[in-house]
Amino acid sequence: MHAPKSAPTLTTARLTLTAHAATDLEDCAAMWTDPRVYVMIGGQPRTREDVWIRLLRSIGQWTVFGYGSWIARDTATGQLIGELGLIEARRAIEPSIDAAPEVGWTLTGDAQGKGYASEALAAILAWTDTRIPATTCIIDPANAPSIRLAERLGYRLRTTGTYRDAPILIFDRAAPGAISAR
User: Fold this and answer.
1) pTM, two decimal places
2) Secondary structure of 89-145 in the HEC alphabet?
3) Domain assignment present for 114
């Protein structure tokens, strides 16, 4: 199968998921300075420069790996909902999660708790499941909503670990019909 060099557009009942673009910088920078967003993702706001580098990484991963993340926007309004998808972060995590792409999701503060993450990730995983046999995700143990979401999506707790001296939960998910990677 030919790997895409850019994120294909995915649609759901309420959302349009597209490739990251330079024009997403201001919306993403605003999202990453909202305490409701970063409280469970490192605990610190991201600078505009950090968000720019993150955006470029998101664009580049598609070229290198044939998969990556998407920008999710409300189809009716164009409002940013968040960033979701697969990343190859090569994080210094013990134990390592490098054996499978990491699925991650970040929603704007206003979009949280409305089912958007579940809706977007269902579409992303439907696309992913035909291409990648297994994925992983890491979640802060205090982030109960994300833990519940991961479990609803079929992720199972593999183990606990540490990342940047903080505890994390490591979850794995095999694509339906795939032989489990672990």
Assistant:
1) 0.91
2) CCCCEECCCCCCCEEEEEECHHHCCCCHHHHHHHHHHHHHHCCCCEEEEEECCCCHH
3) yes
- For residue 144, is it within any domain? no
Asked if residue 77 belongs to a domain, the reply is yes
Nearest CA to 115 out of 155, 68, 152 is that of 152
Examine residue 164 and state whether it is found in any structural domain, yes or no: no
The predicted-structure confidence for 23-78, as pLDDT tens digits, reads as follows: 999 999 999 999 888 877 777 889 999 999 999 999 999 999 999 999 999 999 99
75 in Cβ contact with 15 (< 8 Å): yes
Q: DSSP characters for 60-83?
A: HHHHHHS--EEEEEETTT--EEEE
- Residue 27 token pair: 């919306």
Task: Report the CATH number that the domain containing residue 17 is assigned in CATH.
Answer: 3.40.630.30
